[in-house]
Amino acid sequence: MPPTLPTTAAEIELMVRELLADKSRAVAGVGHVFTKRFYIVGKQQYVEKLGIENAPDGDIKVRCLFIEFVGYEDTAKGCDEAPVFNLVYSFRAIHEFEDERADGSCSSDDFAAFVMNLRAAFLPARHLGFPDNLYHTPLLMPDRIRIDEDELTGAFGHIAPFVLKVELATGD
What we know:
Structural class: alpha+beta
Mean pLDDT: 84
Largest sheet: 6 strands, mixed
Shape: elongated
């Protein structure tokens, strides 16, 4: 028997956010995936909140992806009894900057590979376990990657914004 959608739009949204997080966690180099906002001040509180262990070089490295519900868009598809709308999500990836390492690698190359792998993960198989009701668009990057201090973690690093829409057909 195929799975059924929850009954309310709020329950569906929460389920979709978790499905997106699960899909993201499968991408190499993602780090921690957060689906809820939290308040911290600086990198030390981020580390304490997560209980991160030190990296092999003894330093702590921040790597995370925030997935946040940012709204919805009604569409002209469907009908009054079975409307179709989009759930809109913001993704923000942060990887702490690390200059060239002793082995010749660097965080810029690691982050570029991660971003391309995240994109690839959201290209095929666009359904989210409910192929007749939920499928997502490709992951879009509305702004360029920047290197800056992240406002949530306090880490100085690579920051990439993404937008993803999930179309929800509420009819059977």
